[in-house]
């Protein structure tokens, strides 16, 4: 009788351990899904309350609308040369001159918002890693 009881307890312990492993393998993906859902809800809230994701949400020192449009364009399409940037900003605003875009890019470089680098024979522009990190953190994605 005692041996049977001991055997049953051991069997129950084994089954409990197996169940705990199964539960823990289910909990982790559920927790991940919960975090992703929270991040999406945060994005939806920003879209509804602010009308979109705008540069001034994280970049307080970007005051003029052309610079904001440049940042928006580089968020959507990084690694652009000045001609491409001018066209993309022009498509958003209806008008944009290459000279003004170039001047605004210099200002954004000085503020460490945009980085300029040479790729082949052209200079290209992208947002700095700091700006990308700020956007990611604001949206709840830690990179």
Would you give an account of this structure?
Helix 2 (65-76) packs across helix 3. With 143 residues, the chain is mostly helical. It contains five helices and three strands; from the N terminus they run H-H-E-H-H-E-E-H. The chain folds into two domains: 1-52; 55-139, Orthogonal Bundle (Arc Repressor Mutant, subunit A). The protein starts with a helix and ends with a helix. A hairpin with a 2-residue loop joins strand 2 (114-119) and strand 3 (122-127).
Short description:
By secondary structure, the protein is mainly alpha-helical.
In CATH, what is the class of the largest domain? Mainly Alpha
Order of SSEs, N→C?
Answer: HHEHHEEH
Mean pLDDT across every amino acid position: 85
Give the helix tally.
Answer: 5
Q: What is the level-2 CATH architecture name of the largest domain?
A: Orthogonal Bundle
Q: Can you give the helix content as a percent range?
A: 55-70%
Radius of gyration over all CA atoms, rounded: 26 Å
CATH homologous superfamily assignment of the largest domain: Winged helix-like DNA-binding domain superfamily/Winged helix DNA-binding domain
* Principal-axis shape: elongated
Structural class given helices, strands, pairing? mainly alpha
In percent terms, what proportion of residues is strand? 5-15%
Q: Tell me the distance between the termini.
A: 59 Å
Q: What's the main sheet like?
A: 3 strands, antiparallel
Biggest sheet strand line-up: 1-3-2
Low-confidence stretches: none
CATH topology of the largest domain: Arc Repressor Mutant, subunit A
What's the number of structural domains?
2
Number of strands: 3
